[in-house]
Amino acid sequence: TYTIMDIPYWSMIPTLATTKEDREKISVVPRIFASLGGLTVTTFGIALVNKLGNGNQIKGFEYFALGIVIIFIISTIVTCINVKEKTQVQVNNEKVNIKQAFNILKQNDQLLVFIGIVLAYNLAMQLAGGAAIYYFKYVAGKESLFSLYSFFKVAEIGGLMLFPVVTRKIGRQQVFRMATILPMFGLITLFISGLIAPQSILFISVSAVLLNLGSGFLLGSTTVMLADIVDYGEYKLGSRNESIIFSAQTLLVKLASALSGWLIGVGLSLIGYVAGAAVQSNITIIGIRVIMTIIPSIVALVMYVIYKSKYKINGSFHDEILQVIGSRKKVKVLNINNK
User: Which helix (H) or strand (E) holds 306?
Assistant: First the structure.
């Protein structure tokens, strides 16, 4: 159900906003609330379960799930009733089969570049996030610091809110560069902290803020990029295929989640992690540091290299795409009116 909803939901962005500035503003709104939802559940979820169940976690989870379902249904109905698609001339409204869908994905070279970027981004973030609980339990030696680290996901919301403003001032390319550097600095800060002051609240807070601020900028950047790739597909292939292109995003998030979970599991096995043990070996602790900080930093660097060398929907070329699409639509409207 999530997948069925997620694809058309994000596919609305290219239609609801046709200018670069409007997309930068609109695209961050759902991302902000998604981050807020995640932050709320991770911060207050267990406390709500215990409160609702009055000590009975089975009942607590039942009531918690019921509450989520009610909020989910109401918010979905609000969206379906109130969000109206702008009327526009469709370039191509023919049905697309599975084979044609794959051909569209292959022919859109910028979508293939985007796949590499988003896969790397999600892999880096999910590796760092998935290994965090092991890091604070065994490297920092204080599991409660994980809650402090998780709380600073609020910085991701800050990054999303700042994204349109910063983009207008320095441009998308510079924002993407900054969005790559910030998480790398955050993870390196945590690595150094683990060596000299593993329980330092200051180091942990700075690390979490940098990581999540960069993540917010990256979420804003990738959402806008995907909307632009829809335009590029129309510019190059003559057809708009929002749902096909946006389905790649959902697939990539799921794929990165599966890969990161597998890599963490394999990585822990290779470094000699013993489940349930109160203390791990020195080799294991070093390995957890690497999984949590070094590997995600390398993946983030690879992501930037892909973006810098292959992604081209920026500046004057992006303006040209929008102008060509606008001209085609005007011609289409004139032809229809003449008929």
Answer: helix 295-310
- Per-residue b or e along 278-291, where b marks 16 or more CB atoms closer than 10 Å to that residue's CB: eebeeebbebbbbb
Residue type, 250: T
Q: Which two tokens stand for residue 95?
A: 């049905």
Long-range contacts of 185-189 (CB under 8 A, 24+ apart): 185/210, 186/210, 186/211, 186/212, 186/214, 187/128, 187/211, 187/292, 187/293, 187/294, 187/296, 187/297, 188/293, 188/297
Reply yes or no on whether the pLDDT at 333 is more than 60. no
The residue extents of the domains of the chain are 98-333
Q: Tokens 């942990």: give the residue.
A: 204
Give the model confidence (pLDDT) of 166-206 as tens digits.
998 998 899 999 999 999 999 999 999 988 999 999 999 99
Each residue's pLDDT tens digit, 142-166: 988 988 888 898 899 999 999 989 9
Tracing tokens 């049905």 back to the chain, one arrives at 95
CATH topology of domain 98-333: Growth Hormone; Chain: A; (1.20.1250)
Question: For residue 320, how many other CB atoms are within 10 A of its CB?
Answer: 11
Measured CA to CA, the distance from residue 215 to residue 121 in angstroms comes to 9
